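Record format v2
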Amino acid sequence: MTDAVKPNVETTLVNLTIDNVPVSVPKGTLVVDAAKRIGIDIPVFCYHPKLEPVGMCRMCLVDIGLPAVNRETGKVETDKQGRPVINFGRALQTGCTVEVAEGMVVVGYTEKVQKARQDVLEFLLTSHPLDCPICDKGGECPLQNLTMAHGRSDSRFIFDEKIKLAKHVPLGEMIFLDRERCIQCARCTRFQDEIADDPVIGFEARGRSLQIVTYSEPGFDSIWSGNTTDICPVGALTTTDFRFGARPWELQASASLCTHCPVGCNTTLNTRREAKAGGEMVVKRVMPRQNEEVNEIWLCDKGRFAHHYAAKDDGRLTGPLVRRDGKLVAATWEKALALVAEKFEGAGKGLVTLAGGKLTNEDLYNLAGLAKARGGKALLDSRMAGGDLTAQVGLSTGSNLADLGKGDAALVVACDLEEEAPLWWLRVKQAAERGATVIVANPRRTKLERHAAFTLRYEYGHEAALVTALVGSFSPKRADLPAAVQALIRDKDVKDAGQAIAGAKDLIVFYGSEGTGLAESAALARACANLLIGTGHIGRPNNGLVAVWDKANAQGGWDMGLRPSADLAADLGAAKAAYIVAADPAGDSPALAEAVKAAGFVVVQDIRLSATAELADVVLPAAAFTERDGTFTSGERRVQRLHPAVPAYAGLRGDFAVTAQIAARLGVAQEKRLATGVFNQIAASVPAYAGLTSAALSEVREQWPVIGRGDVYYGGTTYDNKQGLGVQLPVSGDSPALTFEQPAEPAKFKGLKAVPVTRLYDRGTTVTPSAVLHPRLPGAFIALSVEDADKMKIEPGQKVQATLNGVTVEVEAHIDNSLAQGVVLAPRSFGLAIEGPCEITVKK
Amino acid sequence: MANVIGSIAALMNGMWTVLKQGLEGPVTVQYPEVKRPVHRRFKGRHFLRRYENGLERCIGCSLCAAACPADAIFVEASENTDDKRYSPGERYASTYEINMLRCIFCGYCEDACPTQAIVLGDNYEMSFTDRSQAIYTREMLLDPAAPDARPTPQKVAPGSFDRSIPDMKDPD
Amino acid sequence: MNALQTKYAKEVKAILAKYPDDQKRSAVMPLLYVAQREAGYVSRQHLADIAEIIEVTPTEVASIVGFYTLYHDQPEGKYRIQVCNDLPCAMRGADAFLQGVCENLGIEVGGTTDDGLVTVEAVMCLAACDKAPMFQVQDYENITYYEEQTVDSTLKLVDKWRKAGAKKK
């Protein structure tokens, strides 16, 4: 982090003058950053405020002088007028590598500096192609802008000597490189190395032959690759998704949120009217929107590229469908809603609503309200528990992962953070780099371990036992603890990690769903809460429990009163009427497909015809997230708002409005016009949301570094946040008591034990419609331990038959050498019937 | 008296002018059978030009649309492949529309074009019975390929047209 | 255990022993020498093997190969004649010398003779400016300096190699 204001570091102010403007900045600030803070532009190409300075491009040359000090007296020499004498160096210096000093004088307006900038630009342009007209960066290009501002007006360029290089080099499936345009600033390679810790692109050769290469297999296959196109100061790197899609000035920008994981990254949707889409407004690209408390200026590739499920294409539902003679046929809204209302009326208390975790709070509120009013069940489509605990001991107002540093600790348990919530992985990693103690507890190796002070291994099923052992390591021994916990307590690493946690100033605990079903998740969440309560890490900012939810708005679901079902198959199967919204149980698990078939009357509300919808009696369409208003609550309990970016497809409404129309026919009054209307009701009736207003969600504060205004040269093309940073909810305040439940022994199986894991790129309904991601989507697979693979003579990549819960699927066998014998990883949302740990048989 | 003579002289003068004009030929032409030549710098209906080998000059950069003061031009680009090549380089205009009702024939698009693809010709004969007819599409605007050139899309040898902007000459 | 590790087990082990366990990446240079000794260049496979041994990405190893002039990632001649033609050497006739050698061998600068024996390259300063024209010869294992050379003496050297090679066959 080159961030001038580093948390947990005491700041001494240094006074200097830049272009005759006096400024005081913290010690250690770089000259370019100091200038930026007072609105003076020192042009840069290779420098980026989020990366370490390297001083490669020389664009930031400025004249830097220091006060002359008398060697004898040690005092600053003064001239006749009493002003300090300033000694300027003979050569110009790079403002991006020089730290400020007391009394420093920085000058950027002299002819000498202007000439230097002009010369550097002339050098950069000697081999830069003049293809701005077809370049995707044209219009938001730092090289273009800085050339206009500081470059020569004439050319001394010898066209015959122009170096011609490849213009169409696929670095990976997502990113194309134009070698001619590259100015070798190394922002991309440094990003991959310093920020993403995945250096799969690098420099090769030297001098004029220097070029970006990848020798990795398969290519530039990083989940962060899209960010390199944002920070690239020229059009050398372009994404497959947006390539030639539109000129930047033709795009409209609309604030939105990523709906894929519980981080809640702020995004900007760039839209344009398109002939190819029949004259509709379409989302051309998803860009990160700066929120230094959430996603900083980054976005993972899933968030950037997996937006096509909301596209206006033939796969979208445009009107209600009703089953007639076994077939789904189009019906009017009036008829469909009347039928639904009639059947729901008849179902009475037998109504089961199942809501997907990618719905907004408003949708969830209306759904829960409908179920409650009818005496039915309001279920959340999630396999994780603990939303009630995060509301009590979660992160409270004012928390920011960027504040974690020396003396603080973060525990990540049962979670492959990079796969489940990439941005949190990034921020926890950065916390480790700032000196925070990161403890990773997972039965197999995960990427975060590289930055962990302690790596704790346990057996799948012993997640809660491990956390209990951490509590036990600093609390009086309790003889009644189960054997698994006792064994773990004796482990030295567990003991040391426990001490580190107990002694930490601030502690954040992340728990995920690696290897857990609902029951295991509940025990784990409870144990994590105990750990936080036991060590007093609750009720303060930067302390608390964060659930790495399996769905973006699962926290909102819990807050709105929905709960995951302990036995979803039984609940659905027994339902007299099932109202399934934005969830695809049948697609997730073949076992649940049977339950959906067994349910009485099934209404599915979604944007596309899912596997569940195909089994439904009535299918109701709804507007996609790009087309509507609403709020999400992130895993850090930050309520954020998304805005409609494009007009709703076929005049569709948000899910809350559809639900409200059904409710109205059942005599339940609900807000059906405005999402903000529902939000006001939430603020009035859900205690944690009390007093929240749409206006509060839209408040912005000055953020550092300055990004995405006129100065794309400085931070890249990430958008400035003008539409709101969101509001982090307070915790309920009542400190819950420590409750020690004995962690249950995990179920034993005769054969192999399959445990569910989450992969970033899965085959769920929100990912597969994005063709751009297909090369990166693995097919259905399982991962075996080396021992089991050897025993069964299975080679990596071999096709095998895997049977889970009575459903057999052909999958590819992977081998994970950090896996314990007898355990098989089964990824979620790949068509495998897995809800929690279960038995698996693998046949060749 | 002098007044009377003066008046008669003025009258005669006027009569003479009328007589003179009356004896001159008619200035009207039998349009549309007869057409007048337009001025050299006349700006009429647009054309999208091609290179000699039949490839389209337009690279779909949208600069014409950006320059257009009447917002009359709509461009949408796509990517060329060597199997289906429309223009040199990577990008071509897959959609190119000009709304002739909006166009004010200022010629800014012509000025903005980096490849001299769009030019305003001398055709002013545009009439519509429907507003949608005023939208001239890419197919309508494109010059037909020369007799000895191939129409687009062309299948070309890989790597033979990898630059969008024609090579520049060293300025003297 | 990958191919490189198996083939040169002892050597690799000895190299790794020189560096602390958490600084394995420092072993990249000596490992590249081991890899290059086999065929005069570092193959794609060896690149991946080294990356695996020192736990970095193949791209990082390739960057290092690309940065240093004495590592090669393409198979070329068995002997690489690396002629310095920086300014001081050029003033003592290095450019003409380089051209002469290439013409006589029937190759371009940077090219390899048809028999795959000799590659001639132009390189930056070799710190023997006073003895120019000069070059160094890099074969699979060694680097040898040849100073105050003429086109004739160089061609004789090449002939010697040719004969030695023929004898071996």
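The CA atoms of residues 117 and 162 of chain C lie 8 Å apart.
Residues 151-168 of chain C form the longest helix (18 residues).
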